[in-house]
Amino acid sequence: MSKITVDTARLPLLLNELRLPAISRLWQDIAARADKEGWPAARFLSALAELEVAERARRRIERHLAESRLPSGKTLDGFDFNALPMLSRAHVMALAAGDTWLAKGANLLLFGPPGCGKSHIAAALGRALIENGRRVLFMRTTDLVQRLQAERQALQLAAAIGKLDRFDLLILDDIAYVTKDQAETSVLFELIAARYERRSLMITANQPFGDWNKVFPDPAMTVAAIDRLVHHATIFEMNVESYRRRTAIARKTKTDRQSGDGSA
Ligand code: ADP
Ligand code: MG
User: In CATH, which of 3.30.200.20, 2.170.150.70, 3.40.50.300, 2.60.40.10 is domain 69-246?
Assistant: First the structure.
């Protein structure tokens, strides 16, 4: 081995040059502990490498959360599964792990009346998947359609849809609110066709497929879109009353009862 001069005073500079911020920040503490406990050199080096890798993973997840446009505060922990007896918590948790369905580009479709918790579950699953290392983009369907429509006008639609490939999962919230306009809704069809069997979509809708002829301009396109979406899909039918309404009623009943107690 060639002779190397070791000058620990240069260490902060070297670590900075190598872009190892976690090691740069922590090596002194770890070194002190290693000296005190008599660690073998290999163990000391492994400990530092592990810290740097863990910090990189954490920063990557932070970046993916920042780019995801997920609404804040919607988590699986904060979701009351008792409100949806037809929804299996175990099934939702399996989807949150993500491995198999995202790998084959399968879809998740959530149907139910306004307020039943579709957007909450969709956002919470998106967050859990990001925490498991995936990339997710959450958008209101109307916003995404508008964006793709602008790309089409700039003759950039294929490129824009291609760029969305970097997301393992695209969440289209409220598909039924897309306006019934030929050009706009065909960009949605093109997105669905482009991701088919490659990249996953999660879609929420107030109406199940029966009403989707309002989403797409002609029946043939509706059938073709639904066909691709359901070919590899999990479908949750969340037919429960609005959670907002139910919690409002529960609050009111509680205060009524309390004031009833007072006056009796
Ligand atoms: P939808 O998208 O189906 O119209 P949301 O997901 O927006 O409904 O739900 C409406 C509100 O009720 C949100 O604030 C959401 O966080 C809350 N909510 C709905 N269902 C549940 C649930 N099962 N547990 C906890 N909060 C819920
Ligand atoms: Mg919603």
Answer: 3.40.50.300
